[in-house]
Amino acid sequence: MAILEILEFPDPRLRTKAQPVTDFGDELQQQIDDMFQTMYDAPGVGLAATQVNIHKRLFVIDASEDKSDPRVFVNPEIVEKRGIEEMEEGCLSFPGVYAKVQRADEVVVKAQDRHGNPFELDTGDFLAVVIQHEYDHIEGKLFVDYLSPLKRNRIRKMLEKQQKKQSKHLLIN
Ligand code: NI
Q1: Bridge partners of residue 123, in order along the sequence
Q2: Would you tell me which of 18, 32, 89, 122 could form a disulfide with 138, CB atoms 3.0–4.6 Å apart?
Q3: Residue 58: beta bridge partners?
Q4: 110 phi and psi, to 5 degrees?
Q5: 79: which residues sit within 8 A by CB, 6+ positions away?
Q6: CA of 35 to the centre of ligand 1 (A)
Q7: Are 21 and 74 in contact (CB under 8 A)?
Q8: Backbone torsions φ then ψ of 91, nearest 5 degrees
Q9: In this predicted structure, what is the pLDDT of residue 1?
Q10: What pLDDT sits at residue 168?
Q11: Structure confidence at residue 75 (pLDDT)
Q12: 25 Cα to the center of ligand 1, angstroms
C-alpha cells in the first residue's frame, strides 16, 4: 500500500470529470487500498479518486468514529435526495478550511462495490453529507462552489499563500 499525494485547491486537476470504472482488476484493487491508506493517514472521513489524480468514478468513506466502517462506492449515482440540512464541511484538498454548506439531509445512492457487485444505500445524517461531498469531487465540483465568489477567492488566496510557503520550505530542506 502507499500514501498518495492529495491535490490541493486551486489545482485545476480537481476540476476533472471522472470516467466510469469498467475494469475491476488488480490496478483498481491497489488504487482502492491506497486511497483508504491515504484517507486514514490524512486523517479524513472521505476521499475521492479525483483528489489523488485518479480520474475514475470512485470514492472511499469511513464516517464512523472508530474507523471501523470502510465503504467503497464505484460508479455511484445519487438517485434520490430528501430534505435539507446545513453542516460545516472540510476537505482534504483544502487544509484548514471549513465552511457551512447546505445539502440534502437524506440520499439514496446506487453504486458498485470494489468487485463490481451493485448495491443500493438509503442513508441520512453525516454519511449522507459525506456521500454528496465525495460525489461532487468525481464531477469536478468542490464544496467552495457553494460559497459566494468573494469567500471562494479569499480561500484561494489563503491556500496559495500556504502552498508557496510549503514549497519554499521544501527547497530549503
Ligand atoms: Ni473533499
Answers
A1: 107
A2: 18
A3: 74
A4: -110, 135
A5: 108, 109, 110
A6: 13
A7: yes
A8: -160, 140
A9: 81
A10: 81
A11: 98
A12: 26
Distance CA 90, CA 111 (A): 24
What amino acid occupies position 77?
Answer: E
pLDDT at 173: 63
Cα 35 from Cα 79, distance rounded (Å): 25
pLDDT digits (tens, 9 = 90+) for 28-48: 999 999 999 999 999 999 999
Residue 171 has what pLDDT? 75
Which tens digit of pLDDT belongs to each residue from 119-167?
999 999 999 999 999 999 999 999 999 999 999 999 999 999 999 988 8
Whether the CB-CB separation of 147 and 99 falls below 8 Å is answered with: yes
- At 163, the amino acid letter reads Q
Distance 119 CA to ligand 1 centre (A): 23
Residue type, 73: F
- Omega before 10 cis (within 30°)? yes
Residues forming a β-bridge with 19: 56
